[in-house]
Each structure stands twice: as structure tokens, then as C-alpha cells.
Backbone:
């Protein structure tokens, strides 16, 4: 992507919407760095703490769960884990890693409140990907080789955690259209069609 300024794409997504796959393809097609769980490793390196600690506080886990039962073996380098490290501190480390990456190169971020963390950046586009519950159940049941009933429970549980994480740290409502530049139903155009639609949106917004 030839541009004098980095292009940042933040992708929020409903569970089973194919959001991560879409974000990954966007990064490849537009020549951007891709960050999903990679952010946990990046934040760990920046902070000196173990990646395991960040995984425990990630948006895809029960972040309300106390982290203070973890023991010293999770520490790395000359740092050690103690109850002085709050969940807010972990979020701050991750936010710092997001901002540093966004300053250094064009990026596609998946979740982790990146749209909020980078709210002061003018070179970004915030996207939310959804799909019908039927489509999402079908996708999750295929991925996890489970029944539709089990897939629906996974979706309900996962989205409860994901939305709670986002709402807690941002003070906004996860999935609310007011928070995004573009909300799109991936079930209408399919994965490839959705990728193409978003690429055209990004190109028009930044006059690429």
C-alpha cells in the first residue's frame, strides 16, 4: 500500500461472523501487519511480563476472573507477578503495544478495543462485522465439530465475555453502529465479497 501515512483498520466482530478471516485477508491484500493474538505477545515483550498473563486478561477469556491466583513461574525476565499488577495495567500495556504498532506501520487490528485505543488517530477506519445467528451457528458448529445447540451456547458465552470486555474498558456499547464507520453483514456477500467491499470502502475513504 503506497501512502505517506499508515492506514489502520480496526475490526470488531460477532462470534462466527468470519471477522477474523476477513481481517486477515484484508491485511494480506492491503499490505498491512495483522494483529490478533499477536498483540498479546507484543504486549508481553513491551512490558516484560509473560504472555500467559495477558492471555488470562484477553477479551476472549473471562477477564473478570481474578488474576491474583497466578504464581511467580509465569513471570519473565527480572519482573515478577504480584497483586500490584491490575487488570487495568495489563490493558494499558496492551494499549501501548497497539499504539506503538499503529505508529510504526499500517495495521489491521482484530478486537481488543483497538478502535477505542486509537480513537485519536485520524488515519483509521473502524469496522464491525456481523451475520445472522443461523449463519454464525453453522460456522461455529463446523469449526468446532459440534451440534447447533452447542454452537449457539458457545456464541452466547463468547459474546457475553467479548461485549463485557469492550463495554468495561471503553464505556461504549459493543456492536453499536454509532461506534463504527462501517457495519456489514458477512452473510450477504460471503467472506470474499465482504473483503472486497471493505477494501473498496477503505480505498475510497483514504483516496488510495
Residues:
Amino acid at each position: 500500500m503506497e501512502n505517506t501515512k499508515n492506514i489502520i483498520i480496526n475490526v470488531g466482530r460477532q462470534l462466527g461472523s468470519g471477522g477474523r478471516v476477513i481481517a486477515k485477508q484484508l491485511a494480506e491484500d492491503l499490505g498491512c501487519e495483522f494483529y490478533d493474538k499477536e498483540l498479546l505477545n507484543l504486549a508481553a515483550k513491551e512490558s516484560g511480563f509473560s504472555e500467559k498473563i495477558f492471555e488470562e486478561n484477553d477479551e476472549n477469556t473471562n477477564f473478570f476472573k481474578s488474576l491474583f491466583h497466578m504464581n511467580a513461574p509465569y513471570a519473565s525476565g527480572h519482573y515478577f507477578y504480584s497483586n500490584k499488577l491490575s487488570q487495568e495495567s495489563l490493558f494499558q500495556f496492551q494499549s501501548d503495544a497497539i499504539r506503538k504498532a499503529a505508529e510504526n506501520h499500517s495495521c489491521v487490528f482484530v478486537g481488543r478495543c483497538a478502535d477505542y485505543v486509537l480513537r485519536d488517530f485520524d488515519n483509521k477506519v473502524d469496522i464491525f462485522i456481523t451475520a445472522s445467528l443461523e449463519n454464525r451457528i453453522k460456522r461455529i458448529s463446523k469449526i468446532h465439530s459440534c451440534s447447533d445447540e452447542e454452537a449457539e451456547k458457545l456464541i452466547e458465552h463468547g459474546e457475553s465475555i467479548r461485549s463485557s470486555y469492550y463495554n468495561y474498558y471503553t464505556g461504549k456499547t459493543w456492536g453499536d453502529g454509532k461506534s463504527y464507520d462501517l457495519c456489514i453483514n458477512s452473510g450477504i456477500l460471503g467472506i470474499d465479497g465482504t473483503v472486497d467491499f471493505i477494501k473498496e470502502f477503505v480505498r475510497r475513504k483514504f483516496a488510495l
